[in-house]
Amino acid sequence: MSAAVTTVDMRPGGLWLAFSQNKLAWVGLVLLSLIILMAIFAPWLAPRDPLEQDIVARLQPPSADYWLGTDSYGRDVLSRLIYGARISLFVGFLAILIAMLVGTTIGVISGYIGGLFDQIVMGVLDVLLAFPTLLLGLMIAAMLGASLENLIIAIAVTEIAPFARVARAPTITLRQRDFVEASRSYGCGPFRIMSRHILPNMLSDVVVMSSLWLASAIRTEASLSFIGLGVPPPAPTWGGMIREGFENILDAWWLAVFPSLAILLTVLALNLLGDALRDASDPRTR
């Protein structure tokens, strides 16, 4: 008898059960919702143009005029922080989406075919997994150059191998299930079996892990921006703001503290949501 594959119920009732069992998930949901709304309505929420410079008001501490102070060019930190959420979330979501599509496809095909093909593919993925995420992203971003598109590609490549690993394991189990054997007996081809029978039964596992790896993608984006391999200035990015604040840490502490708190809250929200969904998919915690 083939082993059963446990997945999280992604229907509204199943999601409600997941959140009801983990109260901290509501904290993550509220935090992430506020950050997303802040990014969407940035033109209306930002008090000033994030690129507008005022040398007279440079390095002003938090005050009634500038709630989070100004940077070394006199730009409003609050406005840049709000607009920076757009770049961080856009890069993170798009990079994870690309990695999920490519990695899941590779994992399902490799797990279904098996044999020598599976060994070769997994060997290549093991090489990618041998590099730390930040180091691999750093090498790719350095080769491609600093731009928004190259930053997304670099982060996506670092997350392909984990997605492929997560997709491959349930595929190996599912390909031996009775309903897959029945599909073969009816003459269904490999593509139809993988797309109609295997992928829907393991997609929830991938979605759950994507919520956790999204936090890693945002951290990687901030780290690459910090070392100058992210979106080129003067575009407001949280990592770039921290870099500027690090250069003025003794004179203007607010430049590094506030974008760091923004990254901390975003990663915390994503981890709380991901942990809740992961716990819901584990039968030992249900």
UniProtKB/TrEMBL annotation:
GO cellular component: plasma membrane
A Pfam family reported for this protein in Swiss-Prot or TrEMBL: OppC_N
Subcellular location: Cell membrane
Transport recorded as keyword: yes
TM stretches of this protein: 24-46, 89-114, 120-144, 252-274
Top-level taxon in the UniProt lineage: Bacteria
Keyword terms of this UniProt record: Cell membrane, Membrane, Peptide transport, Protein transport, Transmembrane, Transmembrane helix, Transport
SUPFAM superfamilies tied to this protein: MetI-like (SSF161098)
Alphabetical GO biological process terms: peptide transport; protein transport; transmembrane transport
UniProt keyword annotation of Cell membrane present: yes
Sequence similarity: Belongs to the binding-protein-dependent transport system permease family.
UniProt-recorded name of the protein: Peptide ABC transporter substrate-binding protein
Organism: Agaricicola taiwanensis
